[in-house]
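Lay summary

Proteins are chains of building blocks that fold into shapes. Our project writes down both the chain and a compact code for its shape. Here are two examples, one after the other.
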Amino acid sequence: MRAIAAFLVLWVHVSGSFLRLGPSGVWVHDLTGPINMGRIGVVMFFAISGFVVPFSIKLAHPHPIREFLLTRFFRLYPAYWLSIPLGIFANWLWSRPFTWPMLAVNLTMLEYIFDVDPIIGLYWTLAVEFVFYVCCALLVAMHSIANYRRIGLLVVLLLATHATIVAVSWNRVGGAYYSFSAWFINLAIMFWGTLYRAHSEDTGLERPERTLMWSVAIFIVIVYPLAFRFLIGVPLSFTIGYSIGVLLFIVGTRFLRITFAPLAWLGLVSYSVYLLHPVVLAVVLRGLMALPRDSWWRTWHLGAYVVLVAVVTSAVAAAVYYCIEKPFIALGRRLARRFFDQPDVVPRSVRASPS
């Protein structure tokens, strides 16, 4: 599902950017608009994070918060830092502005929190992930990470806050506050993923929590888009991506388990696919635009360009995963064991996991 989510986002970005070549097959891009395919991929990523990340916290260890934050740091930041100079290069290709203060803030992964322009636009999702990790650490500190009733109440609170902000602000100023309110529903989906994992593995989710978990799923998939459309006037394009993303996550984990080996491998490198496809896109597109208009390379079907960028991005992502991501993930785990005096209790099968 990570692979599917990453390539849905890639599809949207590549098909939209390559329209400037005037290719045939514009329908390839038109398909992505009505259902907000990019948001579907992002929502799937958020649900997967909620499903995976809290259960990676080793509560039985003496220092679970420190160990968790250290391993998460080495999971995310090395590849992210690599993407920054590559993103600067891609921006240079398009003559986009760049400043040193902008670079300094982007290095923290908190540029959206400090209202600084991102070097690559999709960094906003990483800021949401960062906040989610902090919330997980706080829940551990409050001995609430395994209290699923409290997590369920947190999900309801986040959804209620999102709905209130949208309802109050939409008719007054249009969609101006939607990006702010989206923080609440994105975090809600992540913690909902935690409840869903607890239910899937029967790890102490009692009947009220199970009812709440499924009620939230029904709300996001059915009630959310319809109520916001007909009661508030929010276009379906703003909400349907959340509905489909959560629905695909449920189907993919409960009813249609994906065991196709190539997709499993692409899931391993999906973080770098997500991070670096804008760079590959920019380099390929800029190179094509430098060619004469009647060049054969500029007469392809739009779908062929999507496939081309997907293949090149997969190759680049594989190199980054094996040379950067995987070694630093292993380093983070070694440092956690060394500094916090933890035995190596991670099964060999789990060590290869990108989570």
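And here is the second example, written the same way.
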Amino acid sequence: MKNKVYLAGLGNFGKKIGEYLEKMGKNVCVLPKDLAAQTEALKDPEVEALFVVTPNDRHYELLDKALKGGRHHIFVEKPITSSWGDALQLRDLAKANRNILMVGHNQRREAVFRKAKEILDSGRIGKVVSAYFNYSHGAAFNISPDNWRAQIKRHREGPLITLGSHSIDTLHYLLGPVKLVTAFIQNLTGKIEAPDANAVTMLMENGATVFLQADYNIPSEKICLIHGTEGVIGINRDKIHLRIGRDVDRKPSEYEEIPVAHVDTIEEELEEFFAAIEGRATVETGFSEAFNVMAVIDSCFHSDRHRPLLSVADESPGYFS
């Protein structure tokens, strides 16, 4: 059985993936940066898979080359590309691809979101009315200007495409497709060139509304609230609480913590990837799931650029002063 894999990208997450692969007994080789050497390396018949863990805007060229070559199973970290247009360019290649293509949208695998899905499917909180996601941290205060995340040319949606792509995929997993979006993409601190804040309102196809935030300018946050007609799911990092029932004598029902077991989501998805190669599993997050995330992000970008804005002062009596 082949156990040689090529790893493209040696940043913090690339090194982390490399460590996991080595623990799995894989012979990890670093893909050369030189294009000629890279092409030759990808011809190696002993290579089982290619792992793309480079900055987002480097994904497309590697995926395009590997998919056209048709020789390798591919794991690419999310988001699949840095733009929906690039993902669209890969669509036909991905459809024709007979090898495994997996995208690392691993947040949905966290125990709290698996439990939330179970509760939603059971109908315990009734019809979903609204949801709130906030996945943020203070990267704008810590990264240098030469970091790709700080540059608007390489990171036009800022944290929406890095942190927010996790939330959007998880949202698809929990509540289904997005129908409409309105988005604000801003730079509020001036600490980096790229945006550092996003606020997105979504109307889901099932009628629920969602408010999503992904920021690089606040103390770290990871919250999800899902409101239904019969109850509320509350997630804060690795804890999940459930509240069932409406107010009784003006007193709200109590939250109950639901115990969940920790899951190593990276280990789980890599095991699934290699099991799929051997024909023992199918990948949960492939091209279509990743493409749908990019479609939402692209819609957010165009909403921010082209949405009609109604001024409070012009369209109504305005603020009282």
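What can we say about the second shape? The chain has a mean pLDDT of 95.
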